[in-house]
Amino acid sequence: MQDEFAPGTAWLVGAGPGDPDLLTRKAERLLARADIVFHDALVSPAVLALATRAELVSVGKRAGRHSKDQATIDRLLVEAALAGRRVLRLKGGDPSIFGRSMEEISALRSAGIPVSICPGITAASATAAAARLSLSLRGVARRVQFVTAHSRRGMALDLYWQALADPACTLAVYMGREAAPELSRALIAAGLPGGTPVLVACDVSLPDAAMLRTRLDLLPIAARALRADSPTLILIGDAIGESDLPQAGARHAEADGAPVEDAPAVRHQNAERTVPPSTRSVAPLT
């Protein structure tokens, strides 16, 4: 039987949204066998603890705090594998969704190193599960679109807004917190109603997870109600309205000149999180 993780080979492994119970059995097995793990900044300590015999190397990128550029990461992976080590590249969520997988796969293949992928649960799926809703919904959402709102600082998002504003679609926006005002304006300008349901979530599956259900025209203030340094996902579409999480109540605050409402954070029952004074009802995730 061929060794699935022989010395001198590499695996790109999905760490999922953070809860180690949401790892695949294969991911847990590979972590236990790895000699060296190059991991993203947002991979939870509980997941890293499963790499019991490996050297841990952080190569994660955070907004404004890039520790390693992609070329350096590629080189480190290749050097470790050529040295005969079992190399595991641990990525948050799923490696194939906004994970720059092909750049690393290409570098490893060019060096003659066998490389495989172990998928993980992506943030959109984990958020839908936590909110008790479906990303697709018969008669409401016939497709799901994954987009990233990450762009270079000071540059507008380069997205096809007309396609994203499809009312029969659920839109999952990764890294969308800073772009929330632009997302709201552009999607409404492209024809999506301002009352379209929205769910903003951060730290999904972790003990301090926070979620807030609101609407598209109120998205800017809702996004500001959650921690700025947490990974944030935004779900937009009529299917999101099926969630049984409480919705923010109408208030008098303003964002970018438009009426908005206060944004109560729906938090995990073990969360210890500071929220703005405007916060009203707070409910646990169950």
Q: How many discrete structural domains?
A: 2
The CATH class of the largest domain turns out to be Alpha Beta
Would you list the SSEs in sequence order as H and E? EHEHEEEHEHEHEHEHEEHEEEEE
Topology-level CATH name of the largest domain: Methyltransferase, Cobalt-precorrin-4 Transmethylase, Domain 2
CATH superfamily of the largest domain, by name, is Tetrapyrrole methylase, C-terminal domain
**Class inferred from helices and paired strands:** alpha/beta
Instruction: Please count the beta strands (DSSP E, at least 2 residues each).
Output: 16
Shape: elongated
Biggest beta-sheet profile: 7 strands, mixed
Percentage of residues in strands: 15-25%
Architecture of the largest domain in CATH?
2-Layer Sandwich
The whole-number mean of residue pLDDT values reads: 84
Radius of gyration: 20 Å
Widest sheet, order of strands: 8-9-12-10-11-15-16
Q: Which percent bin holds the helix content? A: 10-25%
Low-confidence stretches: 249-264, 268-286
Number of helices: 8
N-to-C CA distance: 44 Å
